[in-house]
């Protein structure tokens, strides 16, 4: 007697697999009361070769039922079952290839998800949508993604409602529709889809997606997401207790959630916890703990964690070669992840000749990269390099003035103060005391301590 294919297809864990096998075969000499899983392998291995048998053998090796766990053998048997048309084996195999994060295997991911979807295996239909959305094993196709999610939702797939809601929120493959986005995300959240709960928490906190700001709902959705193993929600709960949003401010409770999130794998929590340990914020300062959590965050590609880890290598006395190599490595990784502070820091290092040979051209290159990423202070540093250059050309002075003005217009006090000096002294421009006074006063408003004395002296000069 063969397995009941629909029951086997639903088998997501050992208990469900056991039930599927029990209902599909007439067991001999197996104690069903004790659920002796080790007997499953011995029984299944003697059955006729077919998709069902290979699927079960794959699970035996995957979970270690009667044999030692062996991922390669599990994958091999899943593939045998998949190629014989077993829908859940096709889905499972695609998931295995996806989990390995090897891009060269992504064509197999899409291929096997697509095979299972063609058999109306609903989770696979949803994952085909994900492939089209993210460009996994195929070209990105927003409309195809939306259509796949819609089809999965029509078949009752709760997880697909989350993605369907995302499509409406971002306008992926359809017109942006906040009302529809909230509808489907809420339905998914009500069925304990943690990512939907997490996203709704952000919406209610920030008054996004057409909802009114509601810290109570944000807090409640964060708690639900945390209970459903979304550890990024722990970081949000940390912020709530740290700042006193909706709940009473409680640093001990805040740190409880931050540590929970870090231990659960939240890169944001790991980064902030590392920062706390590095500078003794709400915890006893610990370089060892700072390194530990910054490393975990950095390895998850968190740009802040990568920047912090680089700084920790710079600040601590370890082997000089290792220290420099590691610091430069993580600064550059952070830049690749669009961290403007890391690009600015590299500019400083090469300008000043700290841990690397002094190299003005390289410094300029990193400052330009930092500016591209949005750094205001990099505009100030680059302008200063141009204007202090020996025998600076008119073109260099013009570039400097433009950079000073851009950063000053964004409220950067040091640039405002320098512009005051430039217009007062006529450095590359005509003397203009009114403009000088304006920029000095702006600099004072934004915290430049030296500005007040210069304002006083300039006013006295103007009165004469």
What would you note in describing this structure?
The chain contains 26 helices and no strands. By secondary structure, it is an all-alpha fold. The radius of gyration is 30 Å and the shape is elongated.
Short description:
With 464 residues, this protein is mainly alpha-helical. 71% of the residues lie in helices and 0% in strands.
Spell the H/E element sequence: HHHHHHHHHHHHHHHHHHHHHHHHHH
| Helix content percent band | over 70%
Round the mean pLDDT to the nearest integer and report it: 89
Q: How far apart, in Å, are the first and last alpha carbons?
A: 108 Å
CATH superfamily of the domain at 192-264, by name, is: Tetratricopeptide repeat domain
Q: Give the name of the CATH architecture of the domain at 192-264.
A: Alpha Horseshoe
Strand content is under 5%
Biggest pleated sheet: none
Computed over alpha carbons, the radius of gyration is: 30 Å
Features of this protein?
464 residues; Serine Threonine Protein Phosphatase 5, Tetratricopeptide repeat
């Amino acid at each position: 007697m063969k397995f009941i294919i629909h029951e086997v297809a639903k088998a997501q864990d050992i208990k469900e697999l056991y039930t599927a096998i029990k209902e599909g075969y007439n067991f001999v000499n197996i104690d069903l009361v004790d659920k002796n899983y080790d007997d499953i392998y011995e029984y299944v291995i003697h059955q006729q070769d077919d998709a069902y048998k290979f699927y079960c053998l794959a699970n035996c090796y995957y979970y270690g039922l009667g044999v030692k766990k062996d991922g390669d053998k599990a994958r091999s048997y899943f593939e045998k079952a998949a190629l014989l048309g077993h829908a859940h084996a096709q889905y499972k195999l695609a998931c295995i290839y996806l989990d390995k994060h090897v891009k060269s295997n992504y064509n197999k991911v899409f291929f096997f998800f697509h095979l299972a979807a063609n058999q109306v295996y609903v989770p696979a239909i949803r994952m085909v949508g994900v492939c089209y959305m993210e460009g996994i094993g195929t070209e990105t196709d927003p409309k195809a993604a939306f259509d796949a999610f819609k089809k999965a939702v029509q078949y009752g797939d709760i997880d697909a409602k989350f993605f369907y809601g995302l499509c409406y929120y971002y306008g992926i493959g359809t017109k942006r529709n906040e009302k529809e986005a909230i509808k489907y995300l809420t339905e998914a959240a009500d069925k304990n889809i943690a990512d939907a709960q997490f996203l709704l928490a952000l919406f209610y906190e920030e008054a996004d997606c057409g909802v009114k700001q509601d810290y109570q709902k944000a807090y409640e959705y964060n708690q639900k997401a945390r209970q459903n193993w979304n550890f990024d929600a722990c970081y949000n709960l940390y912020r709530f207790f740290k700042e006193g949003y909706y709940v009473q401010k409680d640093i001990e409770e805040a740190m409880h959630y931050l540590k929970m999130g870090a231990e659960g794998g939240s890169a944001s929590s790991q980064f902030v916890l590392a920062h706390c340990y590095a500078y003794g914020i709400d915890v006893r300062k610990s370089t060892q703990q700072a390194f530990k959590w910054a490393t975990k965050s950095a390895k998850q590609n968190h740009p802040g964690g990568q920047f912090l880890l680089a700084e920790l290598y710079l600040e601590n006395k370890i082997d000089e070669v290792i220290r420099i190599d590691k610091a430069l490595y993580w600064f550059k990784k952070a830049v690749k992840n669009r961290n403007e502070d890391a690009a600015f820091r590299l500019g400083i290092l090469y300008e000043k000749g700290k841990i690397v040979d002094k190299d003005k051209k390289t410094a300029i290159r990193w400052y330009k990269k930092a500016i591209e990423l949005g750094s205001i202070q990099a505009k100030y540093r680059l302008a200063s390099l141009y204007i202090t250059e020996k025998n600076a050309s008119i073109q260099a002075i013009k570039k400097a003035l433009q950079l000073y003005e851009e950063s000053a217009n964004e409220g950067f006090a040091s640039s405002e103060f320098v512009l005051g000096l430039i217009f007062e002294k006529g450095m590359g421009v005509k003397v203009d005391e009114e403009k000088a006074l304006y920029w000095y006063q702006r600099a004072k408003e934004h915290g430049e301590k030296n500005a007040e004395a210069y304002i006083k002296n300039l006013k006295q000069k103007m009165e004469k």
